[in-house]
Amino acid sequence: MATYLMNNMRLLKVLTATLLIVLAPLAQAETKWLDKVVAIVDDDIILASELDSRIESIMTNIERSGKEAPPPEQLRKEVLDLLVLENIQLQIANRYGVRIEDEELNAAVARIAGNNNMSLAQFQQALTASGASYLAVREQIAKEMVLQRVQMGNVNQRIQISDQEIQSFLKSEEGRQRTAPEYHFSHVLIPVDSDASPAQRQQAEAKAKALSAKMRDGKSVDNANDAISISDLGWRKSTELPSLFTEVAAKMSDFDVSEPIQSASGFHIIKLLESRGVKQMVKQTRASHILLKPSAIRSEAQTIALAKELRQRALKGESFRDLAKEYSEDIGSAQEGGDLGWTTPGQLVPQFQKAMDETSPGEIHEPVASDYGWHVIKVIERRNQDVTKDMRKQIARNIIHERKYADELDIWLRKIRSEAFVDIKI
């Protein structure tokens, strides 16, 4: 039945593509073809109008970039190959029911408008002014989102990254550069001439110490009143900092002001405005829970009643761990007595996270609902954890993944292209 429907869908598209306009000037009928099929791809077709439209769009982008366009026949062949590959992926998406919800699409369009410093209304107006259709652009964005989702779903599962790969990357020169801490400094220089006398040098040092103390007290300094040179060093990785500042920077926290640092050119004061990747402290919570799910044999009301009963039993002294083992329907944690281990903010569903954050260590929260069911949550303890090493590992993992993704995507695209039935008509 599925094949029959797909065949009929293709037939319908072919028939639609070959609609005739009948013109009858002076009673003489003339037949004009509006479109034709340029390729058959599995259970679908590609029309000449689709190909011409994409070529026109690509040519516009080439002209805007100022680059030289390839020969027309080469461009037409390459664009047709691109459309064939897209068509194969869209058919895969259709088979697996990949859909982009309106809210998700609206958010994506709004992000694109924001990236161009426009509101959504301004974005629509700009498209209209350029002769483009907002609905067509919106449809193209949705198509690209579908393609991305299909690619990620099929390619990510092909990528394996070992701990050894991560460690090797972190030890490499590139790894040290890419994962190095970043600092944003403001810089004050109290200059000293190379031929300055000892007294002049001491005077400059005293001025530097006074300015450093003034800045630590939160008072502002400026070039004119303090007769100094102030500059913004911008964001720099630790490996890019002047060697004079490297050791000092490593010991500073955000908003710290250094003591005067002496060099041949004078005395320097640096203030750390912001930092990234220096030391990442995260508040973690260790909690246990009992999950209860409404079912055909236990209504929502009965589930809530049981959750409240179990909470009361735990409050009266029964072992929460034993109750979780007996009653919890969370396969992952029930055998561990409901213990979820250490979690960081954002790791758990919002309803659970909110209830857990409201609960002090040793306390048991009132039953709370999530998409998974009803939870009875007991907070065991909290801690501030340094996750700097984990963060560097994650950066390394992301970099390695990005490289492997490009290679695996190319392999996967070649595979689905070779397995598809493609009949080029031009």
UniProtKB/TrEMBL annotation:
InterPro entries: OMP_Chaperone_SurA, PPIase_dom_sf, PPIase_PpiC, PPIase_SurA, SurA_N, Trigger_fact/SurA_dom_sf
Keywords (A to Z) from UniProt: Chaperone, Isomerase, Periplasm, Repeat, Rotamase, Signal
Entry EC number(s): 5.2.1.8
Signal peptide region: 1-29
Catalytic activity from the UniProt record: [protein]-peptidylproline (omega=180) = [protein]-peptidylproline (omega=0)
Limits of the PpiC domain: 180-274, 282-381
Pfam families xref list: Rotamase, Rotamase_3, SurA_N
Function recorded in the entry: Chaperone involved in the correct folding and assembly of outer membrane proteins. Recognizes specific patterns of aromatic residues and the orientation of their side chains, which are found more frequently in integral outer membrane proteins. May act in both early periplasmic and late outer membrane-associated steps of protein maturation.
UniProt name for this protein: Chaperone SurA
Natural source organism: Zhongshania guokunii
Phylogenetic classification of the source organism: Bacteria, Pseudomonadati, Pseudomonadota, Gammaproteobacteria, Cellvibrionales
Gene of this entry: surA
